[in-house]
Amino acid sequence: MLIEFIYTSHAKTPLSPEQLSTLKKSCIEYNTQHKITGMLLYNNMKFMQVLEGDKETILALFKKIKQDPRHHQVEALILNPIDERNFGQWAMGIADISNESIKPDFLSDPNIVNKALSKKLLLAFSHHLIEID
């Protein structure tokens, strides 16, 4: 079954552009092998990510993500069956929005980051995404 899965988390330390680029490369390699697509937003040590793929594959990856010592406060927001991918163009798109004219705690604001708005938020950023290398 094809699903979309959205979660948020907090990095334990700030990530440099070089570290985000390295993360993107490893995500693309893993996701390509496992037929996963998605997008990651990074804003001042906070992440929001959407993953699309086979349910068992995504849940196994999320288990690894929860155990990753580089971040904490991992919270699942959405797990929905889908008929087609919304982020199929990316094995993993990553956008660092920390330096944009967005408030620093943007991805911590419960009025913005909630189940109803998270997918719309990711889709909106995907249409205007300038990815990191």
Automatic annotation (TrEMBL):
Coiled coil: none annotated. GO terms for molecular function: blue light photoreceptor activity; FAD binding. Gene3D superfamilies: 3.30.70.100. SUPFAM superfamilies: Acylphosphatase/BLUF domain-like. PROSITE patterns: BLUF. Pfam families: BLUF (PF04940). Residues 2-93 form the BLUF domain. This is BLUF domain-containing protein.
